[in-house]
Write a structure and sequence with these properties.
heterodimer; A: mainly beta; B: mainly beta; 0% helix
Chain lengths: 107, 116
Amino acid sequence: GNSVTQMEGPVTLSEEAFLTINCTYTATGYPSLFWYVQYPGEGLQLLLKATKADDKGSNKGFEATYRKETTSFHLEKGSVQVSDSAVYFCALIQFYFGTGTSLTVIP
Amino acid sequence: DTGVSQDPRHKITKRGQNVTFRCDPISEHNRLYWYRQTLGQGPEFLTYFQNEAQLEKSRLLSDRFSAERPKGSFSTLEIQRTEQGDSAMYLCASSLGTSAHNSPLHFGNGTRLTVT
């Protein structure tokens, strides 16, 4: 069946460090993949998405590439900021979410 | 775009009581979803509607859970005979649905249920 496995946290990084949060999926076909972010005290909001294999989603300096060979959709950012501190969720279509990865960026 | 709104924000109830939550989606969105989220977990899909039709309800947690969207606008989620294990955050989301399920979700801030 369909499922998402997400890297567990929490993750603590210094400002300007490189970020990778791993996400792998199991699915039939090539369903859309999403990253959602939840900032402290706020609801989940879309960060980026990719709707087919080899697509790259990007937003706010974050990127993720839909890789069918490795069934992965890892989230990356080259230089994190304190304002990126949040919980990040990988999702497969609208029905399957990862457990979330908490990121704290320290100055 | 006024966003997805959920009411109430918090609900404290005694075990065995019934509770009902309301969700108002973004007005032009045809799909509406309900999720449960417990501490340290991601959203767990419960059910969804396209307009007034409930397209998936097998993931509702038990027959104590039911949802409606009578006019294809707002939706309600009811839990009957609440149990302490029902304590969680209940999230609503809406989207412009397509058959490919590739439209992003817009989430409300959730209703936090505490069963004592």
